[in-house]
Design a protein that fits this description.
Blueprint lengths: L1 E6 L3 H16 L5 E6 H9 L12 E5 L2 H11 L5 E4 L8 E3 L4 H10 L3 E5 L2 E5 L5 E4 L2 E6 L6 E7 L2 E8 L1 E5 L7 H4 L11 E7 L9 E4 L4 E8 L3 E5 L3 E5 L4 E5 L4 E5 L6 H8 L5 H4 L4 H13 L2 E2 H8 L3 H13 L3 E5 L7 E5 L1
Parallel strand pairs: 1-2, 1-3, 3-4, 4-5
Antiparallel strand pairs: 6-19, 7-8, 7-18, 9-12, 9-16, 10-11, 10-15, 12-13, 13-14, 15-18, 16-17, 20-22, 21-22
Helix pairs in contact: 8-10
Length: about 350
């Protein structure tokens, strides 16, 4: 068995990756490893030179946070299955933790796991002809926060509406409980064959979210704003847009995710991902603040840099959202012992 390990930069994740490798090697002579750091993968993704890493491997083990996992999914190209491991932050996809390492090693070596397959959406750029798939969502926003953008939305060559909004999110069913939910999008349960289109704070309140068949071709044109507009893939990959028409369609290949848990209660996992929001406390706060509130509920305490990395939001937007949540008494902070320059943010 040939395993590629994608490893986040934090020392705790590096140590956990070493432990996983040692346990797998100790229990099998027929196993080999290759590895890539998350920073190396970032460079490879930006240069579109990532596929060479998966040429001769069987599975990918992602050791890190949600961002590490999403990059690993992108790296897999829908060809190799990915399993998420983390010693720090337990997310919806985490299957390997220090508490179940022995069970996980046995499952991997005996191949007694299941592979869940998830639909993805993909960006098709009319200028560069780039093809960029996303597991959760493709988001289109002005680079600077508090800036409106105008756009025209077309679905299968049918004009839907022309509007102005803070941004636009095109989400998979899996991503419906993420950023799209914070922008008042619907929840899609059961991995249905659909795509969600959610405007963020539209000026025209009649511009509601749209649920479309997954095979639909979504065109977004006439993109204009006072500042640069960006498209963000799963909060990890950013591309500048220069007014060109972009198309978003169902990705050619589904993502393959390894599960070792038996009798997984998807409803329970879904409940754990959702926040029972106090609507009065959060009334009037921007979607970015709601998103960060939900992220802290799901992932646990995080530093500001971790929030920025996980959400893909600009640092200014994150700082403003944390300030709003702190003023409302919803989020607290304390000094980060490993780095006095940073603070840890947590729900109160």
């Amino acid at each position: 068995m040939k395993i590629l390990m994608v490893i986040a930069e934090e020392e705790a994740f590096k140590n956990f990756a070493d432990t996983i490798r040692e346990q797998l090697s100790k229990n099998s002579d027929n196993i080999s490893f290759s590895k890539i750091s998350e920073s190396e993968l970032d460079i490879a993704l930006q240069k579109s030179k990532h596929l060479r890493y998966i040429t001769a491997i069987d599975i990918i083990i992602s050791v890190g946070d949600t961002g590490t996992f999403l990059k690993s999914i992108f790296l897999s190209n829908g060809e190799k299955p990915v399993i998420a491991a983390s010693s720090e932050q337990i997310s919806f996809f985490t299957e390997i933790t220090p508490n179940n390492l022995e069970e996980a090693v046995t499952s991997i070596l005996s191949k007694s796991y299941t592979i869940d397959k998830y639909n993805r959406v993909a960006l098709q750029d009319s200028l560069s002809n780039e093809y960029l798939p996303a597991l959760n969502e493709i988001a289109i926003f002005p680079k600077r926060s508090a800036q409106l953008m105008s756009y025209t939305l077309t679905l299968d060559n049918n004009h839907i509406y022309r509007g102005r909004a803070d941004g636009l999110i095109v989400s998979t069913p899996l991503g419906s409980t993420g950023y799209a939910l914070s922008a008042n999008g619907p929840i899609a349960y059961g991995n249905p064959d659909i795509t969600l289109i959610v405007p963020v704070n539209p000026l025209n309140k009649d511009h509601h979210p749209v649920v479309a068949p997954a095979e639909s071709i979504i065109s977004i044109s006439n993109l204009k704003a006072k500042t640069q507009i960006e498209v963000i893939i799963d909060g990890q990959i950013r591309k500048k847009l220069d007014g060109q028409t972009i198309k978003i369609l169902k990705a050619r290949k589904k993502a393959k995710v390894i599960r070792i848990s038996k009798n997984v209660n998807i409803l329970s996992r879904l409940r754990n991902r959702l926040v029972e929001l106090d609507l009065q406390s959060l009334e009037g706060v921007p979607p970015s603040a709601k998103y960060i509130f939900k992220l802290l509920h799901t992932e646990g305490e995080m530093t500001q840099s971790e929030i920025i990395q996980s959400t893909g939001l600009p640092s200014r937007t994150v700082r403003n959202a944390l300030k709003i949540l702190s003023e409302k008494g919803l989020v607290g902070k304390r000094r980060y012992l490993h780095d006095a320059r940073q603070s840890i943010y947590f729900l109160i």
